[in-house]
UniProtKB/TrEMBL annotation:
It comes from Microdochium trichocladiopsis. InterPro entries: HAD-like_sf (IPR036412), HAD-SF_hydro_IA (IPR006439), HAD_2 (IPR041492), HAD_sf (IPR023214), PGP-like_dom2 (IPR023198). It holds the Pfam family HAD_2. SUPFAM superfamilies: HAD-like. Signal peptide: none annotated. GO terms for molecular function: phosphatase activity. This is HAD-like domain-containing protein.
Length: 274
């Protein structure tokens, strides 16, 4: 993996990367915590939960929260808050321009192929529909074709193989390859660029053998200050799953950190844009 080929497909996470959901998730959890006399959710804990399926009501959270209610009641009250606030989701800065530009971009060494895009999100269908219920938000997500979207409850992703396992990104790539014309070469993992905000999402992209752009929330970037090279290599190990040979090496150049999706450096990845 010493030579990086030009990018032919961009694969996107959604929560905290395309949409401002992380602040809303924090609001929903903290509202329930405060209602029951507990402190708001700290970013030090949230940093370990982001992107992990089921983590908002999992062992790590409840070991910290020490709530006087059952997990079932917490889930119900959190769901009420999410149903209230998720429709407030909006695209983050730079997202609409980036997706619109990639829709007409070209790829390959001589720019002969249309750029491909896919969505690979841990959000399940019900939550996805809540988060995209606003027409403006829905219009931005619709820039990614429906047939190239892989959600958290997609049956093509084996149960228990959510991020940081690479499966969801490999399924998203297969969804793209299945729709390419017969005269267009199949896209390899190395020709894919994964866009992620979470640490385990970066790891999933690296495990898939793909190039990665990490665009963390400012609070997450602060939590991992000084560990950036380990994050970009996929070597933080928040959820140990083995298969260490899938991980990158610090400083190998296959992952980069960006402050936002504004002013994206298309040329760095061999993309031809007009």
């Amino acid at each position: 993996m010493s030579t990086k080929p030009p990018i032919r497909a961009c694969l996107f996470d959604m929560d905290g990367l395309l949409l401002n959901t992380e602040d809303l998730y924090t609001l929903c959890s903290s509202t329930v915590l405060l209602r029951h006399g507990r402190p708001p959710l700290p970013w030090s804990l949230k940093a370990k939960m982001m992107g992990v399926p089921g983590s908002s009501n999992g062992d790590l959270f409840h070991a910290w929260a020490q709530l006087p209610i059952s997990r079932e009641q917490f889930a119900a009250e959190q769901r009420e808050q999410q149903e209230q606030h998720f429709p407030e989701c909006r695209p983050l800065p730079g997202v609409e321009k980036l997706l619109a530009t990639l829709r007409t971009a070209k790829s390959g060494t001589d720019g002969r192929y249309p750029m491909q895009m896919a969505l690979a999100t841990s959000s399940e269908t019900y939550n996805f529909n809540l988060k995209t219920s606003n027409p403006t938000t829905r219009a931005v997500l619709d820039l990614i074709e429906l047939r190239h979207r892989v959600l958290g409850d997609d049956p093509r992703v084996p149960k228990g193989r959510g991020k940081p396992s690479p499966d969801i990104y490999l399924v998203a790539l297969q969804a793209i390859n299945d729709t390419l014309p017969s005269d267009v070469p199949q896209i390899t993992p190395a020709e894919c660029l994964v866009f992620e905000d979470s640490v385990i999402g970066v790891e999933a992209g690296r495990r898939a053998g793909m190039q990665v752009v990490w665009v963390p929330h400012a609070e997450i970037a602060a939590q991992y200050h000084g560990q950036e090279s380990e994050v970009l290599a996929g070597r933080i190990g928040l959820v140990p799953i083995g298969d260490e040979e899938q991980l990158g090496q610090p400083g190998d150049g296959w992952a980069q950190q960006l402050p936002s999706l504004e002013n994206f450096p298309y040329a760095r990845y061999g993309m031809f844009v007009s």
